[in-house]
Design a protein that fits this description.
Blueprint (H helix, E strand, L loop, with lengths): L3 E2 L10 E3 L4 E5 L7 E5 L4 E2 L1 E9 L6 E8 L2 E9 L6 E5 L2 E5 L10 E8 L4 E6 L2 E2 L3 E2 L6 E2 L3 E4 L21 E9 L5 H8 L15 E6 L3 E4 L6
Antiparallel strand pairs: 1-19, 2-18, 3-17, 3-19, 4-16, 4-18, 5-15, 6-11, 6-17, 7-8, 7-16, 8-9, 9-10, 11-12, 12-13, 12-14
Bound molecules: 2-acetamido-2-deoxy-beta-D-glucopyranose.
Amino acid sequence: FRKILLSSNNFSQEFILYNLSGKMFTFPQQTSTTEVRFTTQRQDMRAVTVCLRSFTDLKREHSLFSLALPTGANGFLIIKSAQSDAFDIWVREQHVKIEAQDFKLNMWQSICATWDASSGLIQLWLNGKPSSKKYTSSGHSINGPMIIVLGQDQDSYGGGFDTKQSFQSFVGMMEDVHMWDYTLSPCEIQGYMDEHYYPEGNVLNWNSVEFQSVGRVLIEEKLRACN
Ligand SMILES: *[C@@H]1O[C@H](CO)[C@@H](O)[C@H](O)[C@H]1NC(C)=O
């Protein structure tokens, strides 16, 4: 494995454009500071799809994706709940619980969440299995300069990480993070889950992404079986 320690303790690095195809982020320890922060030019989204793959042995609640806006830290969040089969999704400060999704420890989990402003419906897909659609927030787009963080949950715009217990921090590996400003079709989502064909994210594209990191987070080759 090629290991790159990205930086330590501060945002000394500029945002750099990376092609992370075939790579993953490894978050090897529980902290209240380690994070990866993405940048995007987009400021107005009438719909969202976020897909990512995670691998963890965390049984506690943890943040998988945290998008904050100046108007509220819970712009678009995907939180794995402490309840083993549940997720919490937040859209524009509105929360909804998704249950009966069979999240497995120490196995890659493919997760996609979709939302659109006209219906206000969200849906969470896990390893090919869709959830019930649920209402969160409708009428308004997700707008303003977004701060997107992996590894921590933003309780305030760009910060507010839980310092006491690193309570919602992510420990494990994460890869193939994409975000679109439209809802992917079920077939496209299935393509993502199967690691077959899917469109690259037009808001965040893992194969061409700008990010900064803080703390001990490494870029490594994806873990895959030997051929
Ligand atoms: C990223 O790298 C992969 C594998 O090397 C390559 O197939 C792909 O075209 C690259 N994508 C971009 C946008 O550079």
